[in-house]
Amino acid sequence: MSIRSAVVIGHGMVGHRFVEALRERDASNDWSVTVLCEEPVPAYDRVGLSSYVGAWDHKELALAGNDYAGDALVDLRTGTRAVSIDRELRKVTTDSGEVFGYDALVMATGSYPFVPPIPGHDRPECFVYRTLEDLDGIRARAEAAAPGSAAVVVGGGLLGLEAANALKLMGMTPHVVEFAPRLMPLQVDEGGGALLSDLVTDLGVTVHTGVGTSSITEGPEGVSVELSDGSVIEAALLVFSAGVRPRDQLAREIGLDVGERGGIVTDLGCRTSDENIYAVGECAAVEGQCYGLVAPGYSTAEVVADRMLGGEAEFPGADLSTKLKLMGVDVASFGDAHAQAPGALEVVLSDAAKGTYAKLVVSDDAKTLLGGILVGDASAYASLRPLVGRELPGDPAALISPAGEKPGAGSLPDDAEVCSCNGVTKGTICGAIADGACDIAQVKSCTNAGTTCGGCLPTIKQLLASSGVVMSKALCEHFEQSRAELFEIVQATDTRTFSALISKYGKGTGCDICKPVVASILASTDSDHILHRNQAGLQDTNDHFLANIQKNGTYSVVPRMPGGECTPEQLIVIGEVARDFGLYTKVTGGQRIDLFGARVEQLPAIWKRLVDAGMESGQAYGKSLRTVKSCVGSTWCRYGVQDSVGMAVDLENRYRGLRSPHKLKFGVSGCARECAEARGKDVGVIATENGWNLYVGGNGGQSPKHAQLLAGGLDDETLVRYIDRYLMFYIRTADRLQRTAPWVESLEGGLDHLKDVVCNDSLGIAAELEAAMAKHVDGYKDEWAGVLDDPEKLSRFVSFVNAPDAADPTVEFDDTGARKVPVLMGMPQFAGSTSD
Fold it and tell me: Alpha-carbon distance 685 to 451, whole Å?
């Protein structure tokens, strides 16, 4: 049998999926495929387009296998556009004049951005947000504009908020204009939209809802954008993100049937009105309905691959569920999110204080889940979405309540769809596990589950665990080792750079998970400065600038005050610094003074004055020791039985600068009345008549835990020795971002095992742990003093790399009331901090 020829017009995510599916299933090599890719680069992850910002590397978004290297039956032509189709001769002509014959033609032309016919829409400062080339154009315009210039996004849907985030990452001040009364009107309801608007505003985006764009004219910064309410935004550029339209022009020109609202009409087999032509993805109107999400697009690709090989697959319908993180804000929508079914009931839990909104839509008897919306916290999405159309396992309110019990993956029926992007059921995943898939990577490879948006990965992990599979402790995709194993490797090999570690023990270039973890390990095993050479590039924002970032982009300054002690001279300097730099001043719950509102370029000048006054960094920004809180103890208090202040000062001076998997807090109380709240800390020390009682593993937060007694009646020397061992054992063995409370619970044997290790030296490592701590104490240097002495490190502290002396013009404050507060795009907000 001769090989038949297929031509694919378009090489987006769906076009690539079709080629992959056809070649994987075509065991007899019946088809050769020619792919006409209009863009200069092959298929890339358009869903993750915003991640291109910052890296500016096309390869970062490239889809695996998009060049079909080594496959002689696939001919990929990049930078090639189809301009005409001859249906009778079955030939496609390109813009270069080449002609390709076909036995089957697959239209995968996707969609194009809709640009409203607003006067001025064609100005050079106006862009769309669709391709890598679009982002390159926006970047060039943004770099030519003044730092912090305004930018307008027309459209407040999924892509509109993605575009706003990209503009913010480029150093611009975004405004989002949405004609509907709320953001993301197709996905969220009024309540969810209101919270989403608040959360996005807190992140520095001005939101304009319920208004349209009237005109775009030349302005002093680039364009003047007039809104329908009469207001005007002066901006450097404008991005249209007002939806997409099916790209069906070629189909219209050759007389294929198109839908009333656009799209190439197909049957359930994705065949068009020409039996030799198929349509997939966003350009296809399956039985008249277009779908703008990647999941149904993948379904059409799979259907056509099956049909071309003699199968009878039909489009299964579309799951329009979405889960994504917009500007760091979780948003999820699934099923009948807007309660359009007759008799549907809504169960809503809105917590403005925590910034979360959850709604479940259930049947009139409250037994069947129909849909839902989650904003701010979408962790329940993976367990709830597969239950749509099924009987609920319990009270609907309990399923979205923070204290309620969530349904486990094991309770799902086998036909429940776990991965909606790729249509993979629980039964398929469990079958792969039964056949030997023993980790997430193998499940992905066998089933394609989790390979697109990743929202189903928590459920896949649960299924692996419930099947008795021992889960991998790999830190991330770049390191197969756990954090504890990497710690041992670094210590044993004396590796001092991330590049050396990943080249020998990992793979790839690293990510935002492994880089900060390795930076912390390097800091825990040596006294190099946290910004020493290439370590600076591994840090997150707080450690990168040695300051705790606040909600309006300014930073807080926290000098260390061991035990809350501060000399009058130091207090005077703190007051002078706060006055001279216009900082908001607050005494924190950890007995320190926090100065809020410093711009990044002001930090060195502020710290110069504080360091000269004998103060040092309080490390409010680091995963390290924060504070040692203390009562006044026996020195002043009539109830005190030990010198709690003296002990607190000694402990803070000993453990300052100690990098760890998560932040550490201490408390020292001079008697059992517990005024320092020591039992709510990672390390709690309480005085008794017979010495000190040592408590460990206490945490506050969303899941507070009381510290547990490790040892009692200790003298000063033994107390310090036990704390040395406890802290170094935690630093060596805890997982990434694991607080001490869950770490103690995770230890096999729990507190009893910890007592054996720390107090009885059951592992024979006590001397080693004490030596490691002694090395830290001997090598401690104040981080800010190290910055002030190094011109290279000082050069990092600028608001704009292209304008080192410029202050961020978006930083504003309102000091007309009793308190100075930051202003976010015209809306005052209370400053927040996790400094202590």
Answer: 48
Whole-number pLDDT of residue 524: 86
pLDDT per position as a tens digit, 229-269 = 999 999 999 999 988 999 999 999 999 999 988 999 999 99
Going by the DSSP 8-state scheme, the letter that residue 157 receives in this structure is S
Report how far residue 649's alpha carbon sits from residue 46's, in angstroms, rounded to the nearest whole number: 54
Structure tokens at 434: 């039964």
**pLDDT on residue 454:** 62
Inter-residue contact 286 to 270 (CB < 8 Å): yes
Three-class SS state of 553: coil
Tokens representing 616 are 């040092």
For range 792-806, the mean pLDDT: 72
Q: Stretch 128-152: mean pLDDT, rounded?
A: 93
Instruction: Write out the H or E segment, with its range, that includes residue 606.
Output: helix 603-612
- In sequence order, the 6+-apart residues with CB closer than 8 A to the CB of 184 are 156, 157, 158, 161, 192, 193, 196, 331, 333
Provide CB contacts within 8 A for 318, sequence distance 6+. 289, 291, 293, 295, 296, 299
From CA 638, how far away is CA 670, in angstroms rounded? 10
Burial class (CB in 10 A: 0-12, 13-18, 19+), 283: buried
Distance in angstroms (rounded) separating the CA atoms of residues 606 and 599: 10
- Return the closest-CA partner of residue 518 out of 540, 501, 494: 501
Max distance between CA atoms of the chain, in angstroms, equals 101
Render pLDDT for 486-531 as a digit per residue (tens, 0 to 9). 999 998 898 888 888 988 898 877 777 888 888 889 888 887 787 7
pLDDT value of position 830: 40
Start-to-end C-alpha separation, the chain? 74
Burial category of 480 from C-beta neighbours within 10 Å (exposed 0-12, middle 13-18, buried 19 and up): middle
Residues 23 and 150: their CA atoms lie apart, in Å, by 48
pLDDT digits (tens, 9 = 90+) for 36-92: 999 999 999 888 787 788 778 888 788 889 999 989 999 999 999 999 999 999 999
* H-helix or E-strand spanning residue 251: helix 249-253
330 C-beta neighbours (distance < 10 Å), count: 18
Contact predicate 103/22, CB 8 Å: no
Would the pTM count as exceeding 0.70?
no
Torsion of the alpha carbons at 89, 90, 94 and 98, rounded to the nearest 10: -60
Say if residues 154 and 146 touch (Cβ distance below 8 Å).
no
Which CB contacts under 8 angstroms, 24+ apart, belong to 53-57? 53/135, 53/139, 53/166, 53/169, 53/170, 54/169, 56/139
Element (H, E) at 52: helix 52-55
Q: Are 430 and 463 in contact (CB under 8 A)?
A: yes
pLDDT value at position 84? 96
The backbone torsions φ and ψ at residue 601, rounded to the nearest 5 degrees and listed phi first, read: -75, -15
Tell me the per-residue pLDDT of 707-750, one tens digit each, with 9 for 90 and over: 999 999 999 999 999 999 999 999 999 988 889 998 998 888 89
Strand intervals (E) in 267-328: 277-279, 284-286, 289-290, 322-326
Q: Residue 819 in contact with residue 585, Cβ under 8 Å?
A: no
Q: Whole-angstrom Cα distance, residue 481 to residue 389?
A: 40
Q: Is 702 helix (H, G, I), strand (E, B) or coil?
A: coil
**pLDDT higher for 211 or 423?**
211
Alpha-carbon distance of 32 to 420, in angstroms, equals 30
Q: How does residue 324 score in pLDDT terms, banded at 50, 70 and 90?
A: confident
